Amino acid sequence: MIYWQIFKTFFKIGLFNFGGGYPMISFIQNEVVLRHGWLSNAEFTDIVAVSQMTPGPVGINMATYTGYAAADNVWGAALATFAVCLPSFIVMILIARYFLKYQNKPVVQAVFKGLRPAIIGLIAAAALVLCDGQNFIDGKSYFIFAVSFFLVLRFKLHPIPLICLAGLAGIVFY
């Protein structure tokens, strides 16, 4: 039964996700923490951090870990990963067949113009999920955030050195 729930949940997440892994974060949080209770809020926040640091797309990394945690084995991880990727695979086959033919149509362009701000909203919602009252965010965390934001914005610092610097700041501050 758990395998069917994992498949159905992550297929739905993959089917209704637009814009990559970051907009997927709030959707995954709603399903796996609030609806199914497979993870606590603290575990979910840890998964987001680990998923960003490990190679591969954030959403797929999160699905893999959550599937493993929900089923307590590697089959749950494999199933969640497959289920979250399957809708994109199907949609990409359809897009490859029809998009090039219809990409300049006003309706298609209007759809994409409508999706862009929604995707930004989903990314912002994911950030707010990580900053909710159950996660401890103090002045030191805001300082690390501000410095990271400045380094990326001003100096276009690559994420790998930024992650290393944030880890060092965590060692120093905490």
Which oligomeric form is depicted? Answer: single chain
> How can the largest sheet be summarized?
none
Strand content: under 5%
Listing every helix as H and every strand as E from the N terminus to the C terminus, the arrangement reads HHHHHHHH
Number of domains: 2
Please report the distance between the alpha carbons of the first and last residues: 42 Å
Question: How many helical elements?
Answer: 8
Overall body shape: globular
Question: Pairing-aware structural class of the strands and helices?
Answer: mainly alpha
Brief descriptors of the model:
about 0% strand; about 170 residues; mainly alpha; single chain
Short recap of the structure:
The chain is an all-alpha fold and 174 residues long. It is built from 8 helices and no strands.
Structure overview:
This protein has 174 residues and is mainly α. It has 2 domains: 2-135, no CATH class; 138-174. Helices cover 82% and strands 0% of the residues. The protein contains 8 helices and no strands. It has helices at 2-16, 21-35, 41-53, 58-71, 74-102, 106-130, 139-155, 159-173. Helix 1 (2-16) runs antiparallel to helix 4 (58-71) and helix 7 (139-155) packs antiparallel against helix 8. The longest helix is centred in the middle third of the chain and has 29 residues, at 74-102. It is globular.
